[in-house]
């Protein structure tokens, strides 16, 4: 890294990154803390602050009022929105899908059936359906982070879902994509193979970004952030749950408790990521 790098835009994951891990399972509390949200709103007046999440648009749009570009469901759908600050009405100005509507409809049927099958087999596991802004099912998360026994469910749920995808009728939907994690207590299935690197590229296109404009800084906390970490100019992992030990391919790490200070220092330094700022957070060398 040079002595200083101008940050052109911040792109961030949501769960476990901007929203602390302890609040993820509580629908009433699964929001960005007010102080951090206010800071992100202030930053967004100077540089773009964009969201790249495995969550869907229905969940995200009112929780990130500072963001006008939201890439959802692991980059499966990216939306550019206009926000009316007085009425809080959000208007979708542009929408990009990774695959066409017909293929999404095929995946929608298979994913709904899979969600029902897994829920019947593991009634204690939470099932989160993720819909596009047009109402088609784009992904599912099977989540057991609220249970005591993570290890057993990590083995049995992932194995069961993988076996199901090899059988009828799911084998007739070859685009269904299973994503497992070494540390996080959930598995994802998407309508198509997708990753946050593609989502980051799509956001960069919507921003009209070129390398001469500066650097893209990416924030994330999970292995599904690795494709975005690899593509970002400045990659910062956020630690918000010490029960986890994910293999993050980022250059720097910051504790969630220090995230506000880190971003505030970046803002006060006119969005220059310097050696001094880098030294204030942890290096993550592989």
Order of helices and strands: EHEHEEEHEEHEEHEHEEHEHE
Q: How would the global form be characterised? A: globular
Q: Number of helix segments?
A: 8
Helix content: 25-40%
Q: Helix/strand/pairing class, anyone?
A: alpha/beta
Mean pLDDT: 90
Tell how many strands the DSSP assignment holds. Answer: 14
CATH homologous superfamily heading of the largest domain: HAD superfamily/HAD-like
Largest sheet: 10 strands, mixed
Under CATH, the topology of the largest domain is which? Rossmann fold
Unreliable segments (pLDDT under 50, ≥5 consecutive)? none
Question: Your description of this structure?
Answer:
The protein has 286 residues and is α/β, with parallel strands linked by helices. The chain is built from eight helices and 14 strands. The protein has helices at residues 34-43, 57-60, 101-121, 150-165, 196-207, 226-231, 256-268, 275-279, and strands spanning 4-12, 49-52, 69-72, 77-83, 90-97, 126-131, 137-143, 177-179, 186-190, 215-220, 234-239, 252-255, 272-274, 282-283. Strands 1, 2, 3, 4, 5, 10, 11, 12, 13 and 14 form a ten-stranded mixed sheet that branches. A four-stranded antiparallel sheet has the order 6-7-9-8, covered by helices on one side. Helix 1 runs parallel beside helix 7 (256-268). The model has no long low-confidence stretch (mean pLDDT 90).
């Amino acid at each position: 890294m040079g002595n200083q790098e101008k940050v052109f835009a911040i792109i961030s994951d949501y769960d476990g990154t901007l929203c602390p891990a302890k609040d993820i399972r509580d629908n009433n509390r699964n929001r960005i803390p007010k102080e951090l949200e206010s800071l992100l709103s202030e930053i967004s007046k100077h540089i773009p602050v964009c969201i790249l999440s495995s969550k869907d648009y229905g969940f995200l749009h009112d929780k990130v009022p500072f963001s006008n570009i939201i890439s959802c469901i692991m980059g499966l759908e990216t939306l550019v929105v206009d926000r009316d600050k007085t009425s809080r009405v959000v208007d979708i100005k542009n929408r990009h899908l990774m695959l066409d509507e017909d293929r999404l409809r095929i995946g929608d049927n298979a994913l709904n059936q899979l969600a029902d099958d897994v829920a019947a087999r593991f009634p204690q596991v939470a099932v989160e359906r993720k819909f596009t802004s047009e109402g088609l099912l784009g992904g599912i998360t099977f989540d057991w982070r609220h249970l005591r026994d993570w290890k057993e469910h990590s083995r049995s749920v992932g194995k069961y879902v993988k076996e199901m995808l090899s059988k009828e009728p799911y084998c007739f939907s070859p685009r269904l994509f299973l994503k497992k994690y070494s540390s996080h207590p959930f598995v994802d299935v998407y309508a198509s193979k997708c990753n946050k690197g593609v989502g980051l590229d799509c956001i960069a296109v919507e921003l009209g970004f070129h390398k001469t404009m500066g650097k893209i800084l990416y924030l994330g906390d999970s292995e599904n952030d690795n494709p975005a970490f690899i593509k970002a100019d400045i990659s910062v992992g956020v630690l918000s749950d010490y029960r986890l030990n994910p293999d993050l391919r980022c250059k720097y790490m910051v504790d969630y408790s220090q995230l506000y200070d880190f971003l505030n220092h970046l803002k006060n330094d006119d969005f220059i990521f310097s050696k001094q700022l880098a030294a204030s957070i942890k290096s993550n060398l592989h």
